[in-house]
Amino acid sequence: MTQGFTSQLPIPLPVAQGGTGLTSTTAYAVLCGGTTSTGNLQSIASVGTSGQVLTSNGAGALPTFTTLQSGNIKAWVNFDGAAATPTIRASGNVTSITDNGTGDYTINFTTALADANYAVAGMVRFTSGGSALITGLSGSATWQQAGSVNVGTYTTAGGSADALYANIICVR
Predict the structure, then answer these.
(1) All residues at 6 or more sequence positions from 57 whose CB lies less than 8 Å from its CB, including other chains
(2) Are residues 166 and 83 located together in one domain of the fold?
(3) Which of 20, 30, 77, 172 is geometrically suited to a Cys-Cys bond with 94, CB 3.0 to 4.6 A?
(4) Are 107 and 166 spatial neighbours (Cβ–Cβ below 8 Å)?
(5) Same structural domain, 21 and 99
């Protein structure tokens, strides 16, 4: 025996009847709890772009997609500076490294930073492995630019030396 079932469900299906109250949504969009004026559920208008994060705007406001700007690592690199040509092991926003001489490197950014007012920090290990180490910024007048930074690696005795492991970060 076969029985048919027909129903006259309203479209959109109201929340009170188990629906969302929405007639359509944007593909990959985030659904959020709405307000009494917007409805129980609300779809965020955009899906954001690569690298953005969903940021809370406090109670009573929908979150938005934003690109982090301040206080973040803008570039970083782990490289072998003792090789004939500096070899990047891993990096973020670093396209290449120029060898300017013993213990003197220019790190070139894939995308330039907003300006040259960023902090640089680093740590190195030399091939001997036994020496304490120092990473310094070059004495050049153009050592820190929006598109690159020039760093030097020095032994505790103060002499320039190529580093087997060099790790540099740029934060703004």
Answers:
(1) 63, 64
(2) yes
(3) 77
(4) no
(5) no
